Amino acid sequence: MFKLILRSTYKTYHGKLGYLFLLLLMTGSLAHILLLKTVWPVNIYDPIVGFDLSVFPHPVTPSGTHLLGTDPLGRDVLSMFLAGSEPLIKLSIISFITGLISSLIVGTFVPFLFKRFDLLLREFSSGLVLISPPIVLLILGTGDFLEKLSPEMVGFIYGLLGGLGVCYLVISTRVKELINSEFLNASRVIGASELQIALKHILPLIIPYSVALMLSVTTSGIVAYGFASFFGQVGWTPNWGMMIYDAITYGSYLGGTNLWNLMPPTFGFILCSSSFYLISISVKKQFGITL
Amino acid sequence: MLKFFLRNLFTSVVSIFIFLLIMFYGINILIPGDFLTPLRLMMSQEELDALRETLGANDPLIQQYYRWIQSVFSGEITPGGFRQRSSKSVLDTVFPTLHVLIPSFIISIYLSRIPALKTSVKRLGKEKIFSDTFGILLISLFPPIIYFLIGERLENTFRSLFDRFDITGTSSELLLFSEMKLGLGFLIFIVACSFIIVSFFEVIALINIPLKKFMISASLLIIIFLFFEIQEVVAMLYYSKNAFITIGILTTLLIGEFILFNNIIVQNISKEDHIMTAAAIGYSNHKIFKDHIIRNSFFPFATRIAINLPYTIASLVIVESTTGWGGMGSMLYRVIMSQDSNAAMAILFLLAILTATLRLMITFSQVVFNPQLRGARNV
């Protein structure tokens, strides 16, 4: 099923563009690791503590040594930009997988096999839907949890909130629509157990829904992580939110806020969120999901 | 209908309390300290411990949650809070929040339709890759960046207007806008301004001459001039500077979101038979869009807005914190940062009520106005 989704989404313009953006981000992330190990001296190009003593005052405009210039704290903007894609790729993938697995497991079995428990879980999901993930990140980042708030952890929390929240509500509604369909009754007549029906008939039909929804949710996760990182709520990792914060806050004291400091992280966020959203549109289009 | 209404109301109340229970545990476990922590600068540790004991801050969390719910029902949403974080100060953020939220919704709903209105009916059912990417671009734009790009320009424009027309105000006057009369008056004023802005953009985009919108805004402005004194109107104009900066940023984010909604909805509707029939008969683009697409797109659009409300609220927190607007969003950010868990719960409670009320309104309007749904409920 996943192979089919991958193949069919690749056929649309949205899908192609989405995969291209994702590929660009992954390439950027790998290029950063390679460049730091081979060409770039760590003391100058480290995305957090790097500082170029040979040029002054910072920030400097784009040049041969610093292709995208430096920020007010003297760090190379290109290095920060490339390093910032890694946490978001990790977060997106973990959020997508967590949400997909949780929504598929709970969404397939609970409304079909444990109908009474479904009512309770729907109420719980409706409560979860009210929880706004950026606010959760804000709360988590305030406490002792800050050090543990890695992109993987944020992705996991976000995936759970999305998978058991909005994704479960949609999937359980879809499963309820399917429960009395003729092909399921036919399977029952020829002796298929409820578990077999759930695994062989229900699951494949709800996978595209879950994939499309979780891709959209992941887009919101990327934006939410950006907000949290802007407020310094996600620990000490190189990220685009922090780049924007530093450019605006320190820029106002040191040499002014410059567009070349702000454009790369903004472009990065757009690239990252577009990639997942475009793939999500492609899944919806190819599988006739009108959500 | 009544049964449906009561069932939905009950479900919403249950959802709110489940949400509050999760948030209560989350806030009290994850944020270090408690609602008395902000007092540490004014009191000694012994005094704080004694106060903690008296107010039951050391009790098990479930007991504290029960006590909090009890106090909510008796009208006090920040029990054990102190003067700075009393219920009044939290409730004072309601009007400022509505002052930016409602106009942002009005402007972005209308403006997000413009790309679709300018597309020919034949192309509506096709992929809109540029429009989708543009929508995502707006969503991904960071509020501080939008503030950086438009904030200063807007501020300068307002300043020059204020200088020209001699409009002045003080910060003490601004506080009055959280009160009922002035708060309501400003809401009417800003809604009127929103319709004027929408009309302006519709005229520029050569869509139509929006007579109805002009009439609505004119009548709302007449209400303001009839029921408010001239000093109050001047104060409203002065207050509108910060409001419009916040609205501008929030609207940019919402327009992106709504363009994406519109693209999907319009694409689905434009494939329906009645649209093809209307096109075959030879109806104009504008007529098909106005009479067939917009009307049918209202409910799917409203449903999507309802689903996305928590994210809209999150955007509100970020935008208000960026511009320093005194609504629920910036207050929530401040109280979380100052570890005031009780005030945070109070704001989350208000935000949950706001979200649930908007959702209920959307659901009921769907049932009342959509004959298909009404028929299904009756069956």
State the gist of this model.
The complex is a heterodimer of chains A (291) and B (379). By secondary structure, chain A is mainly α.
Descriptive labels:
heterodimer, A: 291 residues, 11 helices, B: 379 residues, mainly alpha, globular
The helix/strand series of chain A, from N terminus to C terminus, equals HHHHHHHHHHH
DSSP strand tally of chain A: 0
Mean pLDDT of chain A: 83
Instruction: Compute the CA-based radius of gyration of chain B.
Output: 24 Å
Quote the average pLDDT of chain B: 79
Largest interface: A-B, 54 and 49 residues
- Helix percent of chain A reads over 70%
Q: How would you sum up the major sheet of chain A?
A: none
Oligomer: heterodimer
Distance between the termini of chain A: 20 Å
- Tell me the total number of β-strands of chain B: 0
Question: What report would you give on this structure?
Answer:
The complex is a heterodimer of chains A (291) and B (379). Chain A is mostly helical. Chain A is 75% helix and 0% strand. Chain A has 11 helices and no strands. Chain A has helices spanning 2-10, 13-38, 42-45, 77-113, 115-130, 133-142, 151-178, 182-189, 194-230, 240-253, 259-286. In chain A, helix 7 (151-178) runs antiparallel to helix 9. Chain A starts with a helix and ends in a 5-residue tail after the last helix. The mean pLDDT of chain A is 83. Chain B is mainly alpha-helical and 379 residues long. Helix content of chain B is 80%, strand content 0%. Chain B is built from 18 helices and no strands. Chain B has helices at residues 2-30, 45-55, 61-73, 87-91, 94-117, 121-124, 129-140, 143-165, 171-175, 180-204, 211-227, 230-270, 273-281, 285-307, 309-323, 328-337, 341-369, 371-378. In chain B, helix 7 (129-140) runs antiparallel to helix 12 and helix 8 (143-165) packs antiparallel against helix 12 (230-270). The relative contact order of chain B is 0.14. Residues 80-85 of chain B have low confidence and may be disordered. The interface between A and B is large, with 54 and 49 residues.
